[in-house]
Every structure is written in C-alpha cells, then in structure tokens.
Amino acid sequence: MNANVEQWQVRKAAVTSEAGVVAAQHWLAARAGAAVLDEGGNAIDAAVATAFALGIVEPWMCGIGGAGYLVAWLADERRAVAIDFQGMLPQDIRLEDYPLDPSLPTSLMGFPGVFDNRHVEGPFSVLVPGAVSGLAEAVARFGTFGLDRVMAPSLRLAERGLPVDWHATLMIALESRKLAKDPAAAALFLPGGHPALPERYLSNPALLRTYRAIAEEGPGVVHGGRIGEAMARDLQRLGSRITAEDFAAYEARVFEAMATSHRGHTVYTAGETSGGVRLNEALGHVAEELDPSRGIGAHTYAVYGTALDRAFAAHERRLGRAAPATGCTSHLSVVDAQGNMVALTYTLLNRFGSGVLLPETGVLMNNSVSYFDPRPGFPTTMRGRLKINASNMCPTVVVKDGAARFAVGASGANHIVPCTFQLTALQLDYGLDLEQAFHTPRIDASNRGSLRVDPRVGDAVLAELGERFELEIAQQLVFPKLYACPAGVARDPATGRCSGIADVGSPIAGAAAAGPLELDDRFEAPTVRA
Known about the structure:
By secondary structure, this protein is of the alpha+beta class. Helix content is 32%, strand content 19%. The protein has helices at 27-38, 43-57, 131-142, 147-160, 166-174, 176-180, 183-189, 205-217, 226-237, 244-249, 276-289, 298-319, 416-430, 434-439, 459-466, and strands at residues 15-17, 20-24, 67-74, 79-85, 162-164, 200-202, 253-256, 258-262, 265-269, 328-336, 341-349, 396-400, 403-411, 443-444, 451-453, 471-473, 485-492, 497-502, 510-513.
C-alpha cells in the first residue's frame, strides 16, 4: 500500500508523575482531566472530565450525542467495573422508514443499502445517546467530586470554543459534503460555505448552555428533563422517531468487568458486546503458540496475525456479518496516585456522526442506527429500544497481584482490537514498558485475507512474513490512521510512578500529568457568551 509516504520519524516520550496521568486523543482534553486530578479528584472523576472535554475539542469523534464503554479498576475495593452506555433505538422505530435500495452498496456494518443512505447520514441515522447517562453514572457511583466540579474544565473550554488548527480543518474538510446538508452544522463548521480555516475558535453557545445545564442539574436534565425534550424536538422536526420519553427511558448499565488471564495478569474488558471477546480469544491463541524467549520478530507477528484472524473469524460467525471497516471514535486512559485506573472509549460512530447538529442544544448527534439491520427477522433487526449489542470498542485494564498495571484502548473501528491486543500482549509477553510498546511496529489483521505490516519491522521480518501471508506494507501515517489511535497509562505499584502516552503518530493526541488547566489563547476570537 505505502512504504515511504511520510518523510519523517516521529517519537513521543511518556509523561510521568506520581500524582497521576491522563492520556487522550486530544492534548487539551488530557489537560482538562489532569486538572481534576490536581484538585484531588480520582481517576474516575478525571476520566469523565476528559470525556466531556473531548466533546468540545474533538467533536468530530465523540461527544454527548454519542455512546461507549468505561472500564475502571477500583483500587480500594480491588475490583474492576464496567459501564455500557451504548446507544438505543427509539420505541417507535419503523422499518418502513428505511426502504432498501439495491442500487446502493452495503453499509459499513455489512447491511443492505437504504434509500438516501438514511441509516448512515441525517436524522434517521440517530440513536438515543447514552454518553451523559454513562458518564454521570460513573461519577455518581465511583467518583469523589460532583458532576459540576468534574465538568468545570470542559466549561472553560466551551466558553472559548473549538480551537481550529490544521488537523481540525482536515477533519472538517473530509466531511464537508455531509456537514453542508445540515444548516446548523454547516453554519458552525463551514463558515462562508467552506471548511473553517486554522487559527480561530468556533463558538457553539447552545452547547455551552447544554453543558452548564448538565453540570448544574445532573443527567436528569437530559434523561427526563428539558434538554432531552429540546433534543427530541429538534430531531422530530427533522423526521426522527426519537421522543422525550425515549430519552427518559434510557439507563446506562453497570456491571462487573469481563476478565481473562494472560502471563499471570488479569485482563479486564467491557463485556461481551465490546471488542473484549476478540481480545481474549487472541490472547488465548498467543498463550498457546508464542515463545517469548525468542524475542520480538517474524514469529511474534505471525502468531499475533493468526490470532487476530481467528478471533475476527469467530466474531463474524457470531454476528453473521463482517466487522465494520471504518469509523471514528475517541479513547482516553487515566491513572491516579491511589492506583485507580480507567479506560474509556466513546464515539459518534462515523466522523461527525450523522452530520446533524441540534440547534436548540448545540449537540452533534451519532449515526449509530447503522449498527442495526433494516431487514426483518434478523438478530439485530431494528426494534423498539434495542441497544447496540456488538462493538469494536475495547477499553482494557490489566491487573496483577491486586494492583492495576496499565490501561489501554484505541479508536479506529476494526483497527481497535488489533491495536489494543498488541499493546497488551507486547507488555505481557515481552515485558515492554508502555512507551516501548507504543513505539514498537505493529500489524493489523481482521480476517480480511491480508496482513498489514509497518515497514519498520525490517526487511528480514517482511520477507519471512511474506512467505506466510498476503502483505500490505503500510507506514503508520498521520492520516489515514491504519493502525488505530491508542492512549494508555501505567503505574508501578512498587514506586507509585505513573506514566501515560497517546498515539505517537497523531499531532493532537497527548498525555498530561496532574496539574492546573492553563489555556493559552493562541488564536484571536471572541469567547462564547451563553
């Protein structure tokens, strides 16, 4: 595919601190979470603070119009919990709203094409989002701060607006056709009819008002209150079947995290509807087939590739369809000084989700209806208040001897599980530290008939792998992200030293040690008034 496209070598040093570290897909969001750690919040508080901040500074990937999973290690209780806040279909969902169109290709989820692509774009593609319910539930059950204090950093970011750099301009430009279809989204992201240029802030006063309402009144203002009612009104004006009653009926699910073991460690993931099953199955194959004493080489990548292919093949048999090949998501990981640890992944699904920005609330909505089959009679056929039951998201926390050692996860659709699996396996199989694992060349495999390989593995390894696999030789690029976009944290229980690192190939991903949130107003723009 590409072996020599980007003419540089990129490295990032892990951030270290005894007071805790946040790693996230946007460095400003990491700093927002680190500020909550600095004020005395725990890892759960900081993770939720980071998640709300990501909705401001990385709105194309995630936000309160989306959904996801959280996995947390509670150090004092020595147990791992998970929260599933995946999206939900409205009660009045109707298959006749999604007439099949044989002239269109299958969707990214492997379902037949639908008239006007309405299960993938626009108001008919929107599910009831679970983000506010899930994030608030995490703080209420496992945090130490109130939601108002946790959201304070994201309110500061919302008051200033979305900082547009070259990367943000690229993200907007990639979806400008979709954004142009929605008047509110176009007005915000396409000023003058063109993608917003760098060196400015984009103001979203309605979203600031929504964030303030959630911080002051709690999640009930969305799920049973005036914000949920406003969101439903806007959606219904556009033709959606979502009602205020659907928002009121939504509840996030809290449960004990799913566990497996590998090399004397316990690996916790977000349950059977997440990518955790595939990660566990791949680790099981590795435990049987890999000899770590041989060091990292062609043998490593061959075993890892085969393990992933088998895990994805089993997943496809369970689903009756292939895993989605594209998607945009955000991941964050947090560790605090007490040894609590969080991995959290959430998403709008596609970049900018449905492309629908709700005027009353400023919320950009998901397009997760595409997770469901528009045909009758299938396990994932659309039906009232059915939640998403299969996802690539794979937030992971690894524990040994009653102490969390590292947390990791990634964004990138079907690249998520291969990435998270390798970062986990490299540390457990070969004893790499977090920074070493993030800089080790990776592969990508998902039972698609080929093995994608970073050419940094070396010519000898490529030659040996080429004898066993059909190879795609591809660099880890800034764009497109061919190996996912991970973020991870670690802690040495003997010294209390924490570390964190985010995707080395991303210009905006970063980690931050506990400390105050200091904003430099790089661009001149009026602050948001709401």
